[in-house]
Design a protein that fits this description.
With 451 residues, this protein is α/β, with parallel strands linked by helices. The chain is built from 15 helices and 15 strands. A ten-stranded mixed beta sheet has the order 12-9-6-5-4-3-2-13-14-15. A three-stranded antiparallel beta sheet has the order 1-11-10, with no helix packed on it. It has a two-stranded antiparallel ribbon with strand order 7-8.
Length: 451
């Protein structure tokens, strides 16, 4: 069975499945009610801990109490008949902001190829108003990731500075062609923000073959732009994303360029040009049944063993470059694929609770998860879903219906979901809401609100 990733991935395009923060950390505990033992999850994927931060805990408690009341209520309290006023009046804690559908590359491995360069766009002032209203209702972080390339958005700098003026944590996932735009906003980004470049190669030859930039630019030129950004501000992390592809992998009915042989070369390049880290993750394609993002390997195939063995050896070699200044990370998705524990992450509860706390805002609409961006069954509302009080009320009603009707145990039964653990944890709280009284706020010096 093919298996996917949530985020980041993510979160989409080549590396958007991973959520979406560059650091590593300690493992999370066993799921309380039937989810996986998430020994592979790093500290930054301990979403339960993040939801217990002092700034977010009230949103968690309000959601749990609402769901517990809904499950114990009468038919008149069901989402299809209940007024929006009964739904907790909060925006998501974290969003993926697809700021544009335009892209200046023609990557052969893009999972969003069908939505690129459609001419569908945000109305800039409406977008800013949406972000302002959401920040007033509990939004804490934004990952600017784009259905296309974020830096080609005409008012990219204006949008980033506006989000920082609201006190939001901001991350940018870019193909690297617009490092000048990153430099323009470097002064307003701080220690909790980050920028990640999707480069997926160690040589310019493979980079050109994989990404097919429409205007000439080399991998060296992109990497040279990192030093300039670092000189302007060393506060935020800049990462090198390497999506591992292998012979025989396909998407969009096209065989993609393999880069598995350049894993070590990519790490050497990242360290040489001053990146803070390199992150390795597996290639994604789309599932036929529901268009979820999945890893294009079947662990019953001999080919699986060969690919995983090669990845393991080369990542281990790359890890020799790891030191105090430069880190080599393996994505959770890669770890669980290699040790075959990914099946644990596909045992989802019927209700995906994280769609209340994390959403995707796109020119194409508002969606419940990066895995289902631009998919009708994951749609919460239009692109202006939070742009006014009236639209926000409609969105809350729509979200309540989706939480009630979206069966994650079925829709996400192939998804290797990073939110599996936190979904089971919240499910347990809803079944036993008295446990909320025992939850203490987790106050950290470096709060991380990226979900």
């Amino acid at each position: 069975m093919s298996q996917p990733v949530p985020a980041e991935t993510p979160s989409a395009r080549s590396d958007c499945e991973e959520s979406r923060h560059p650091a590593g950390g300690s493992a999370t505990p066993e799921s309380p009610t039937g989810g996986a033992k998430h020994v592979e999850l790093s500290r930054i994927h301990d979403f339960a801990s993040k939801l217990c931060s002092p700034q977010v805990l009230e949103q968690l408690k309000a959601y749990v109490r609402w769901q517990a009341a809904m499950r114990g209520g009468a038919a008149a309290d069901r989402p299809e008949s209940a007024p929006a006023a009964r739904v907790p009046d909060f925006a998501p804690v974290s969003i993926n902001l697809d700021i544009t559908t335009s892209c200046n590359y023609a990557c052969d491995h893009c999972v969003d190829m069908k939505i690129l360069n459609t001419g569908i766009r945000h109305e800039h002032e409406t977008l800013l108003e949406s972000l302002r209203r959401m920040s007033e209702k509990g939004l804490r972080s934004v990952i600017v990731i784009g259905g296309g390339e974020p830096t080609v958005y005409p008012k990219f700098s204006d949008a980033i500075r506006f989000m920082k003026s609201l006190g939001l944590q901001v991350a940018v996932v870019t193909n690297g062609s617009g490092m000048r735009k990153i430099a323009e906003v470097a002064d307003c980004l701080d220690e909790q923000d980050w920028v990640r470049l999707s480069l997926d190669s160690g040589s310019d030859e493979v980079f050109q073959a994989m990404h097919k930039p429409k205007k000439r630019i080399t991998l060296d030129e992109i990497c040279e732009g990192v030093a300039a950004v670092k000189e302007l501000s060393p506060r935020f992390k800049v990462g090198y994303s390497f999506l591992i592809t292998w012979k025989g992998a396909t998407i969009n009915d096209t065989k993609i360029v393999a880069n598995i042989h350049e894993i070590v070369q990519g790490a050497e390049r990242a360290k040489r040009y001053g990146f803070d880290y390199i992150s390795f993750k597996p290639f994604l394609t789309r599932a036929e049944r529901n268009h979820a993002e999945i890893v294009d390997l079947r662990d019953t195939d001999r080919h699986f063993d060969d690919v995983i063995s090669t990845i393991r050896a080369r990542v281990d070699e790359a890890k020799k470059l790891d030191d105090e200044r430069f880190k080599v990370y393996e994505s959770t998705n890669l770890k669980v694929l290699e040790n075959r524990s990914y099946r644990n992450y596909t045992q989802q509860p019927a209700t995906c609770h994280m769609q209340f706390f994390r959403q995707v805002l796109s020119p194409l609409g508002t969606y419940n998860c990066p895995v289902y961006r631009n998919q009708p069954h994951g749609r919460i509302g239009d692109k202006d879903a939070y742009a006014s009080e009236e639209r926000s009320l409609e969105t809350r009603s729509s979200l309540a219906r989706l939480i009630d009707t979206f069966d994650a145990s079925r829709e996400c039964s192939e998804v290797t979901c990073l939110y599996n653990h936190v979904n089971w944890w919240i499910e347990d709280l809803i079944r036993s809401p008295e446990k909320l009284d025992a939850i203490a706020a987790v106050d950290r010096e470096d709060p991380d609100y990226f979900l």
